[in-house]
Please model this.
Amino acid sequence: MKTRFSSLVSLKKSAMEKSEQALQSANRDLISAKEALELSYNSLNDLEQPQTGKISDILASRVLLNSQRGAIQHNQEWINFAQKQVTKAKEQLKLTMVEHEKFKYLELEEIKRILKDIKIQEAKDLDEIALMTYARKNNNL
Model:
């Protein structure tokens, strides 16, 4: 049954679905960031420090080590950012869900009111038919 809230309910539902998709996307980004951090740590563990050899090899190894530490720091910052995005997305989803439920409730109440009005009108119509039938029977006697 169409009410004045039906279009708002469908609009709020689509907004809620968009919020759900945004949350899923934020969760995927967070998972990617965690995987990247894990790979960075694994790469750091795989680096071997030369114990002997040329100074250029030691300096190159040190540059690789510093580079890997920079990648780890970047990935940790990415995780922090992704966690903030997930938190924002959850809050937005909660708000859109509340809005959707609010308008759904209003639509349900409107439907109840319409059905009540229909029942009242039907009762009036039946009373009128009964009066007309009663009046005919009395006129025919």
